[in-house]
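2024-03-11 09:14:02 DEBUG pipeline.ingest accepted 1 chain
2024-03-11 09:14:02 DEBUG pipeline.ingest length=250
2024-03-11 09:14:03 DEBUG pipeline.predict start
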Amino acid sequence: MSNALFTYTLRLADDLLILSQRLGEWCGHGPVLEEDIALTNRALDHLGEARNLLTYAGQVEGKGRTEDDLAYLRMERQYTNVKLVEQPNGDYAHTMVRSFLFDAYHLPLMQALLKSTDEQLAAIAGKSVKEATYHLRASSEWIIRFGDGTEESHQRAQAALDNLWTYTGELFESDAVLEEMTKAGIAPDIAAIKESWSKTVDQVLSEATLKRPADAFMMTGGRKGLHSEHMGFILAEMQHVTRAYPGAEW
């Protein structure tokens, strides 16, 4: 049980850690000052949740690894995030579509984890639901603004949606780890999360006058450490200081 719980908790953390790193790249480059600050705050929200999960993962593992050890001292193949969150920012429409597709999954997941039989995961979810609610509302508003805006904004949002859709299937993949966690009442039924996600996506895309792409080939492998070509560059930047100055504290 402890091995599966460690892996499951690490997956939750890695999704947020890598997405936080991606969103942090917008700091100082946002389209307007207010949005620049809002997006940086969103990145910090994800990072804060990731820290709580990484700390708990280290405790579950029982090998003395801290949140910093798990964040900065693993190799690429040891990260278990989905490929969606590691995709490049692209333009602002691309960034918002990526966040929306993740937010529509993350909110119902956190809401369901409130009922987890694991008290620590339930407590972390309790702290995250309010932020996740805001994140989904904000990204949904941007999707509608882009989709139902100008001809160019609509085209950019649709192109981003078409490009990123192939990464959404991985959010709902099941395996032995997830099955064990679900059976124990620790993780929610992933089918129910997908149903909620799909309902939200359909509603927002309809209002945004965007076309939902057809389900076809879906990317996979992230949960097993098989990442896109972008992941190594993310880690090189994220881990640089820790690896350049091992053991440094300030």
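2024-03-11 09:14:41 DEBUG pipeline.report The CA atoms of residues 30 and 128 lie 24 Å apart.
2024-03-11 09:14:41 DEBUG pipeline.predict end
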